[in-house]
Amino acid sequence: MSVATRPRVGFAGVGWIGRNRMDAVRPLVDVAGICDPAVEGAIADFDELLERDLDAIVIATPSALHAEQAVQALDRGLAVFCQKPLGRTEDETRRVVEAARAADRLLAVDLSYRSTEAMRRVREVVQAGELGDVFAADLVFHNAYGPDKSWFYDANLSGGGCVIDLGIHLVDLALWTLDLDGFERVEGAVVGAPVEHYAVAQLDHVRIGCSWNLHAGRDCALEAHFHGTDAGAALRNVDGSFYDFRAEVYRGRDIHVLAEPPDDWGGRAIRDWAEKVEAGAGFDQGAERLIEVARTIDRIYGRA
After folding, report:
1. Pair 218, 241: CB distance under 8 Å
2. In terms of C-beta density within 10 A (0-12 exposed, 13-18 middle, 19 or more buried), how is residue 6 classed?
3. In angstroms, rounded to a whole number, what is the distance separating the alpha carbons of residues 16 and 19?
4. Rounded Cα distance, 207 and 187, in Å
5. Which residues pair with 59 in a beta bridge?
6. How far apart are the first and last CA of the chain?
7. What strands, in cross-sheet order, belong to the sheet with 232-237?
8. Three-state SS for 5?
9. pLDDT tens across 80-136, in order?
10. Which of 8, 56, 99, 291 lies 20 to 30 A from 213 at CA?
11. Where would I find the H helices in the chain?
């Protein structure tokens, strides 16, 4: 693909999140095909979508399909942007990352909270050493309700409950912010069946908690606190919002605001991916961290 040519992108799955991401990236790409059996006029078969003249594909289908569809696309030489989780297990995730490496194609997963200005600013101060030695971190993601699709509640289709749905963001943010290769000690406890609706885990010096249907008096509680010897820093959602975030640094009783709403971050990750695809970017070594995220999720579930 010439760098002067807009990427021709296929979209697999255009439910709420898929359509949102398609709308966000549409100014940067040519929509060359849509696959969704629930959408009138769209392609019903993923293999048929792959027969189109494509440079890349965006996957927003149910979780059980992600790994197989991503590998199929990568094997055809297409760049891939996938909704989380990339795979239901470490093995599935590793297979996709290895396929991307073998094909030398760009692979990205929509772990979208990295893209908020607030989280980026928190990571900047952590990486700059402004907190001193970070000796503890606490991250939570609690929802007042759970998913509205039945497949989320079938572990064979989803890979699990709130941990793989929400906790995956927390594991990713901890590894990314602290620039860790992984965790030595992982101890998890999950509550609920057939998939968990509440979970906590201790990952070395990082503690995470997540839930569906928690009675928290608001739609969502999403926070990431990093405690250092010289200062602390945090991302916090504002008034229960899924979209508005504030970043702060704490020194004793003093609070310094790093970032606050508004911030149009929802499509930032896919736009960044599309720009790299247009520039001809190949495999990104940062995709290796996706394997460690999946491995940690497996260990929280006790299936590593």
Report:
1. no
2. middle
3. 5
4. 10
5. 12, 82
6. 40
7. 186-191, 198-203, 206-211, 134-143, 220-228, 232-237, 245-251, 254-259
8. coil
9. 999 999 999 999 999 999 999 999 999 999 999 999 999 999 999 999 999 999 999
10. 291
11. 16-25, 46-50, 63-75, 90-103, 117-127, 155-158, 162, 168-178, 268-278, 288-301
The residues, ordered by sequence, that sit 6+ positions from 252 with a Cβ below 8 Å of its Cβ are none
**pTM reported for the whole predicted model:** 0.96
Spatial neighbors of 151 by CB under 8 A, at least 6 apart, are: 62, 63, 64, 157, 158
Q: Please tell me the distance from the alpha carbon of residue 273 to that of residue 128, in angstroms, as a whole number.
A: 26
Contact 176, 158 (CB under 8 A): no
Q: Which domains does the chain have, with CATH numbers?
A: 8-112+267-284 (3.40.50.720), 117-263 (3.30.360.10)
3-class secondary-structure state, position 61: coil
pLDDT tens digit string along 131-156?
999 999 999 999 999 999 999 999 99
What's the pLDDT at 3?
44
Helices (H) and strands (E) in the chain, counts: 10, 13
